[in-house]
């Protein structure tokens, strides 16, 4: 990859959401914003290797995308109001007030997460429009097919247009009611960066995890008393702290119990632990913790242990027991079974996992967990078959390398 190609790739990571958000705010049309942004990046691919990279790539892309959008509007003759068209053409018009939210990307997230849309549509649309994820990446995040996910995103945009959902940010009073869907979206963006699934991408996409953390910090500024915002931020920080130790020099995923804990980011861990302690104090005062706060507490237990053998698994299991009452999903039950294996043994855990077979047949982590439990029980042939299934379903290159090695060790 040439230097210019690397700059373009980085610009796409850094500027996609900014460009789409700016165009959405200006033209109030997601299709126009997305297509004009894509055309601007395509133009950059053609021109930058020839004329050089502009001094401010983000400004160049935004200006080019604005021109592409105006050209499209004129071609399709979708604006009869000449006054509105004049406002679009003149870039020196004063911007409208931003209201409670002063970040266009965060504004776009809340817009895409409008309650009129089904939750899955909100998540998929925001991952595409703000996170810049491809349809295959989003499909993996939802455990769905690519065609189904593409149709879901198209229907979501069509519904916004047909229902004339306004591109306005919720008022300060309405923000708490809207934040649940937003946090789910940001968490999915973080997860895609934490364990990237796109072919040809880095196994850990620091750009996505960094953006998810940045957006969560902004949401916390807006909602400083919301415990789930603080919990999600703590969860992300404690997970991101382990990033440098998660992939080996040979490009293989390193399991938590094998990671070099000296390579963990002490600053992020300290900040995450501080947030968890704040939420524990609130819980002691009678404020029930939510899902993200409990997940953050589980990660705090793991990151408090100097060695994996020092992990307080009884505390981890107790936290999962509490989480199951809030979120009785098969994935939570699967993660709880891992703690059960450490306390009661792999046979007890395997019985729990096998009951989840129908619900999680297409989920690679189910087969990973099952393969490991079978390996520990000495059932090598069954373990190998489970590893094969996990490898088929895993989309992360580093994880595939790790699973392949574990499977081959069974020989």
TrEMBL record:
Biased composition (Basic and acidic residues): 75-92
Keyword Transcription attached: yes
GO BP terms in the entry: DNA-templated transcription initiation
Keyword Acyltransferase listed: no
InterPro entries xrefs: DUF6596, RNA_pol_sigma70_r2, RNA_pol_sigma70_r4_t2, RNA_pol_sigma_r2, RNA_pol_sigma_r3/r4-like, TPR-like_helical_dom_sf, WH-like_DNA-bd_sf
GO terms assigned for molecular function: DNA binding; sigma factor activity
Pfam families, per database record: DUF6596, Sigma70_r2, Sigma70_r4_2
DUF6596 domain sequence ranges: 178-278
Keyword tags: Sigma factor, Transcription, Transcription regulation
Domain RNA polymerase sigma factor 70 region 4 type: 109-160
RNA polymerase sigma-70 region domain location: 18-78
Location of region: Disordered: 75-97
Family affiliation: Belongs to the sigma-70 factor family. ECF subfamily.
Protein name: RNA polymerase subunit sigma-24
Protein source organism: Kibdelosporangium phytohabitans
